[in-house]
Amino acid sequence: MNTTSTARKLRIAILGCGFMGTALLSGILKNITHSQHEVHFSVTASSYASLRRLDKKFAGQRDQVVVITGDNVEAAKPSEVVILGFQPQQLAEILSNSALLEAIRGKLVISLLAGISSRQITQTIYPNAELSEENRVARVIPSIGAQIRESMTLVAETPLSSSDSDLVAWLFQQVGRTQHVPEELINTVTAVSAACHALTVVAVDAIVDGSVAEGVPRQMALDVAAQCLRSSSTLLQGHMSIESLKESMSVARGITINALLQLDRGHVRPGISDAVTHAVHYAQEFTKAE
């Protein structure tokens, strides 16, 4: 599916709409009014508190969020697309419901479950089946930026028809960029993404603290640091290489090069690399189980 295709109505169920499901839905709803496609959502949660949270969150968007329920079968039955957004450890329990399996078989199933392979999803829904386009199972890992349409969504390369692949791409492009990844690398790249978010937040926090210590108001320091991070990341997306960006900022006897040299005295860069490789090795423990 692409934005130039014939307009269509689409019903999507998000089962177990937790933190990431809520972020994803929030981001889609911010952009969906600009789409020619008419999309409606049914979302579920397992607890009364979560249902209340969802009801309050999407109270002003009843035109798109038509059902908020604790019944997965009720949400899945009328939907063309079913997104699995619950906790990975809940997979066996939730999909042990024969009525739910009947409701989702034959439909496009998009899994957001970290550490759970498309084969595991397929074999749970279609026991003893081989991976094929007929099973219609996609594996997708959005990032936290989905809620502000700045996600880097990882899409595992799994057997899907071209129409299903286009639909997955279109849906997640509503909340940012997408990156197709061989499924055997999905846990590794997810770890890189998670580490990048964590490490950059820590770096900004340290920059702000250092600025405050030198007399800069905290909010001012945060605004400057956040915008500098945003501009640098934008420049690195097809405009400049890391080397050329560093060279353009590091003039002779300048502030930037002296800051970098001071950073290196603390062995920070090796520490960052070590943190990333540790995250990757941790994530690869999930891969072994797949």
Unreliable stretches: 1-5
The name of the CATH architecture of the largest domain is 3-Layer(aba) Sandwich
**CATH-defined topology of the largest domain:** Rossmann fold
Work out the helix count: 12
Tell me the overall shape.
elongated
Would you mind describing this structure in some detail?
- The radius of gyration is 22 Å and the shape is elongated.
- Helices cover 51% and strands 16% of the residues.
- It has twelve helices and eight strands.
- The chain has two domains: 9-174, Rossmann fold; 190-289, ProC C-terminal domain-like fold (Orthogonal Bundle).
- It has an eight-stranded mixed β-sheet with strand order 3-2-1-4-5-6-7-8, with helices on both faces.
- The relative contact order is 0.10.
- By secondary structure, it is α/β, with parallel strands linked by helices.
- Strand 2 (38-44), helix 2 and strand 3 form a beta-alpha-beta unit.
- The longest helix has 28 residues, at 186-213.
- Helix 8 (186-213) runs antiparallel to helix 9 and helix 8 (186-213) runs antiparallel to helix 12.
- It has helices at 19-32, 48-57, 72-76, 91-94, 98-104, 118-125, 162-173, 186-213, 218-235, 242-249, 255-265, 268-289, and strands at 9-15, 38-44, 65-69, 81-84, 108-111, 137-141, 151-157, 176-182.
- Residues 183-285 form the Pyrroline-5-carboxylate reductase dimerisation domain.
- It comes from Exophiala viscosa.
- NADP(+) binds at residues 15-20, 46.
- Belongs to the pyrroline-5-carboxylate reductase family.
- Keywords: Membrane, NADP, Oxidoreductase, Transmembrane, Transmembrane helix.
